[in-house]
Amino acid sequence: MRANRILPIFSQNWLRRLTATRRENGAGLVEVLIALAITGTIVVVFLSSLSTGARAVGVIYERTTAENLARSQLEYTKSQDYVPAPASYDNIPSLPPDFTVSVQASAVEDRDDNIQKITVTVYRNGESILVMEDFKVNR
User: Fold this and answer.
1) Of 35, 71, 89, 93, which residue has the fewest beta carbons closer than 10 angstroms?
2) Does domain 25-137 have CATH number 3.30.200?
């Protein structure tokens, strides 16, 4: 009997009273506002990362297409008959929309007429995005 009198603090009634005093009727306005602010911040960060990713894909597409066009144009120019500089060679037959290519051949100074510097410029919507140079030899 004495053991029951020593620990009355841990009785079920005491626990009920303790939880009843700490029980709340719902979330307060401050808690809701903090949760909305955290959620809003997460959404903004997520959407900005999606936007950055979409822009990066566009830049990679433009750069890859320009490099492929310039390489193709250089190979196509090398396969054509040699024309003494200054000259302009034909462009590759098919280009993607919004892309244009220009080819210029110039003589290499202090060399014979059998070598040219070929400059290929790739444009997108009228803006130069890539310039690639190589040499063409009269064989």
Assistant:
1) 93
2) no
